């Protein structure tokens, strides 16, 4: 791929990322992406043979920016232990909610609800959501909690609930979820005794 081709691909993906993050998948057409990216439709289809392929690339970038850079790196930057990282997730979310960035929402949830779990894009979202749970499971294992998989599932429910709460306008949702998460950790510690 030439530098020019790579630049065109990046413009398309950046444009699609911004549009899909804000408005969803179905509300954004290929023609709008092409127009805003300043490319012709053939260029888009050379890099992304279908809209679904473009959406899959958007989701992959979202995993990098949201799961890896915001959630994982953010929690690791705030805490040195697995248990501390689990709790720090809510501090990261609180910061994102109050900053009002597009990272304050979870595109995997939005796209899954929009497209459905049976759609290939929805299936990709299910996989990306499992990656988030795997991160929580790893931290729970590091903390030597008795049921890492169960805790990760419950933790993810609290995270998703906080995201929905913030979308409803409750900017304190992550702080409320953190209080519940602390109770959940206490229950897990009690199982180990």
From TrEMBL:
InterPro entries: Homeodomain-like_sf, HTH_TetR. It comes from the Bacteria. Residues 6-66 form the HTH tetR-type domain. It holds the Pfam family TetR_N. The keyword Secreted does not apply. Residues 29-48 bind DNA. Keywords: DNA-binding, Transcription, Transcription regulation. One of its GO terms (molecular function) is DNA binding. PANTHER family: HTH-TYPE TRANSCRIPTIONAL REGULATOR YJDC, TRANSCRIPTIONAL REGULATORY PROTEIN. This is TetR/AcrR family transcriptional regulator. It comes from Amycolatopsis acidiphila.
């Amino acid at each position: 791929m030439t530098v020019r081709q790579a630049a065109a691909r990046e413009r398309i993906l950046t444009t699609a990322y911004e549009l899909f993050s804000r408005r969803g998948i179905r509300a954004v057409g290929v023609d709008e992406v092409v127009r805003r990216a300043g490319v012709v439709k053939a260029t888009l289809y050379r890099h992304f043979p279908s809209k679904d392929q473009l959406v899959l690339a958007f989701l992959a970038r979202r995993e990098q920016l949201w799961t890896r850079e915001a959630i994982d790196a953010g929690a690791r930057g705030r805490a040195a232990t697995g248990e501390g990282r689990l709790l720090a997730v809510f501090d990261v979310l609180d910061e994102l909610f109050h900053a009002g960035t597009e990272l304050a929402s979870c595109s995997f949830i939005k796209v899954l609800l929009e497209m459905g779990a049976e759609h290939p894009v929805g299936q990709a979202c299910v996989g990306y959501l499992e990656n988030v749970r795997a991160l929580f499971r790893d931290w729970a294992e590091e903390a030597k909690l008795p049921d890492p998989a169960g805790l990760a599932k419950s933790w993810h429910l609290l995270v998703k609930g906080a995201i929905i709460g913030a979308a409803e306008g409750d900017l304190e949702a992550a702080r409320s979820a953190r209080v519940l998460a602390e109770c959940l950790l206490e229950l897990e510690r009690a199982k180990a005794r």
